[in-house]
Design goal:
Number of helices: 7
Low-confidence stretches: none
Radius of gyration: 24 Å
Distance between the termini: 67 Å
Strand content: 15-25%
Number of strands: 5
Shape: elongated
Helix content: 40-55%
Order of helices and strands: HHEEHEHEEHHH
Structural class: alpha+beta
């Protein structure tokens, strides 16, 4: 894998990676692109994954380059993190494992032949972390240069992931708005009321039936188009 100097070659590689990341359509696409790029960008990286770690150690795999690292990050007994070093990511943005076979090995990484790991925090709140981890089969694979490149790269990944998440939320909000608008129009015609009254009827039915407004609106639209379901029958 390339050993980037401190000059333009690294800058150009990160710029190209940023373009590729921001060209993705959804957060899932962004994460799958990120793990592929991580192997291309980080010196000596052979595999990469992105995982979500919850308080208490529970972990969920979100993206991976191959099945080897998917199994490295998958929960084992009780659904807890397979590598104790990952707990340190709650207090530090980077955790580096130099040799998983140190102290006798016996952990998930050494069992898969993965000697080195570089874990970089992407997102964090009080309940969960999102972490990108690169792996290598040789010990001491990730030095200070690799760590600096990793931190620069994950800064781009975090920005692209935030952007993709906002786009997805806006798209969903627009779909929800259109769906509620269609349901309101159906109720206006069915109940012979104005738009404000139809929306109020929709809100009351949502509260009465303990159903999300979006889901109730979809049910009304589906029922009106003949695909089944129940609508609002009373004001």
């Amino acid at each position: 894998m390339p050993r980037f100097p401190t000059g333009f070659e690294l800058a150009e590689a990160l710029t190209a990676a940023a373009r590729e990341l921001h060209g993705t359509g959804t957060p899932d696409d962004t994460m799958h692109t990120a793990v592929t790029l991580a192997v291309r960008l980080l010196p000596d990286a052979e595999h990469a994954d992105i995982s979500e770690i919850q308080r208490g150690g529970r972990l969920r795999s979100l993206a991976w380059t191959d099945e080897t690292v998917r199994f490295a990050a998958e929960p084992r007994q009780g659904g807890h993190t397979p590598h104790p070093d990952w707990e340190r990511l709650w207090t530090t943005p980077v955790v580096r494992t130099d040799d998983s076979e140190a102290d006798g090995g016996g952990n998930v990484l050494s069992g898969l032949g993965l000697r080195s790991a570089l874990s970089l925090r992407l997102r964090a709140d009080r309940r969960r972390l999102t972490v990108l981890t690169a792996y290598a089969r040789k010990p001491l694979a990730f030095d200070e240069d690799a760590t600096r490149i990793g931190r620069l790269f994950t800064a781009h990944v975090s920005l692209a992931l935030d952007s993709a998440t906002v786009r997805e939320q806006l798209t969903e909000a627009m779909r929800t708005r259109d769906l509620i608008g269609q349901a309101t129009g159906i109720l206006m015609e069915r109940l012979d009321i104005d738009a404000a009254g139809a929306f109020e009827s929709l809100v009351k039915a949502s509260q009465r039936e303990n159903v999300k407004l979006r889901d109730l609106a979809r049910r009304i639209v589906d029922a009106n188009s003949g695909t089944g379901g129940r609508g609002v029958t009373e004001r």
